[in-house]
Design a protein that fits this description.
389 residues
């Protein structure tokens, strides 16, 4: 039975929240009523800021009490140092700090970030390799027996096996990303979470992650198919009107496809934090989509640029790592061996996934935390949680 959003799960706490009874929401110490247990009277709202500091008039001072253009309380040019209990400073992050924090998160907890990826993706690669090897065996027999056997290769059972193996690898990747996000969130607070603790916190939320993936994947496929059909119909209509089908194919169709890609990229960026919301806030599927849409409002181009650069860098890194396996596989393929190149290709895929999944998950988790620090002041709340935890 799922829990209401915002309620802690048994034996685990939401992101940045210490043990029950010790701190309130997001690590803030609960304030007892005035006169009990030595508590000080609570000042009226608006009279005092955090830590009992008087609030300056609106617009007079900037963030952290710094006067714009004058250096604030501490003199010209002074920039207060941010608290850094873990892999990143608790303030809005730069691009370099996001990447540095991602690799720090991997180094701080390699068992969760790397070890689990190797085990799970390795099992998925073995299953996929078995189906692929069986398929190539049928191709060899078809080449000797004739076209009838070759047609059997494309039977429903064979295609279903390939699709199921690919789906298993995709599902394993999705689960690993969710577990890695939890590990990164603890590394931000300077904590190292064990594999058992990660699983205990994640197991009640992974089904929501799967539902989210299926929902967004189905919506994406429907959108692509529908938009492609619309582009084709529009291209045919324009060709009939203009009488120049070549111009439509060369100029207008690529422009329409580019527009379609832009629309898909827009929705992908606006909804990309839904995974983090499910894993770190424990919300439902639809609530996570709405939450991601709100968090990414006004930050599209920054998030799009960082994720695009990350995908390019990870792709280059994975390609470099897979080159030795591809070259060695080509050598055996030239000699007529089919099985060994398949094994080497699977090993290269395993190495690439073991690198790409943790890096992408770490960058995504840090972007989620960065957006919340910029929009909701999460840095102050995390600093309290780190000091009290």
């Amino acid at each position: 039975m799922s829990q209401e959003p915002g309620q802690p799960e048994p034996a685990s706490q939401p992101f940045g929240v210490p043990a029950p009874g010790q701190y309130g929401q997001y690590g803030q110490p609960p304030v007892p009523p005035s006169g009990q247990d030595g508590a000080q009277p609570v000042p009226p709202p608006g009279d005092y800021g955090q830590y009992g500091q008087p609030l300056p008039p609106p617009g007079q001072y900037g963030q952290y009490g710094q006067s714009p253009g004058q250096g604030g309380y501490y003199g010209p040019g002074f920039v207060p140092a941010a608290v850094q209990p873990g892999i990143v400073p608790l303030r809005p992050l730069t691009l370099g700090e996001i990447y540095d924090g991602a690799f720090r998160a991997i180094r701080s907890n390699p068992l969760v970030m790397f070890g689990l990826a190797i085990i799970v993706v390795g099992l998925g690669a073995v299953v996929q390799l078995a189906f692929t090897a069986a398929a190539f065996g049928r191709i060899e027999r078809a080449a000797q027996a004739g076209v009838v056997e070759l047609e059997a290769f494309f039977s429903v059972g064979s295609m279903a096996g390939v699709l199921l193996s690919s789906a298993a690898v995709s599902l394993a990747t999705l689960v690993l990303e969710g577990l890695a996000i939890l590990s990164v969130s603890e590394s931000v607070l300077g904590r190292t979470i064990t594999l058992g603790e990660v699983w205990q916190r994640a197991r009640g939320r992974l089904w929501r992650l799967v539902v989210l993936s299926l929902l967004l994947g189905t919506a994406g496929v429907v959108a692509v198919v529908g938009a492609t059909a619309l582009v084709i119909a529009l291209a045919v209509a324009l060709a009939e009107v203009s009488g120049d089908g070549v111009l439509v194919l060369v100029v207008l169709v690529p422009l329409l496809l580019l527009l379609l890609a832009g629309i898909l990229a827009f929705f992908a960026v606006r909804l990309m934090l839904a995974t983090c919301v499910i894993m770190l806030e424990g919300t439902g599927v639809l609530a996570s989509i709405a939450r991601s849409w709100r968090l990414t409002r006004g930050s599209f181009w920054r998030l799009f640029g960082i994720m695009l650069l990350t995908v390019v860098l990870v792709t280059i890194l994975v390609s470099i790592l897979s080159v030795p396996f591809s070259m060695l596989g080509t050598v055996f393929a030239v000699q007529g061996d089919i099985t060994l190149p398949l094994i080497l290709s699977s090993i290269g895929q395993l190495v690439g996934s073991a690198v790409s999944i943790p890096v992408m998950a770490a960058v995504l988790a840090l972007l989620y935390i960065d957006v919340r620090m910029r929009k909701e002041g999460l840095d102050v709340e995390l600093a309290r949680a780190a000091q009290g935890g």
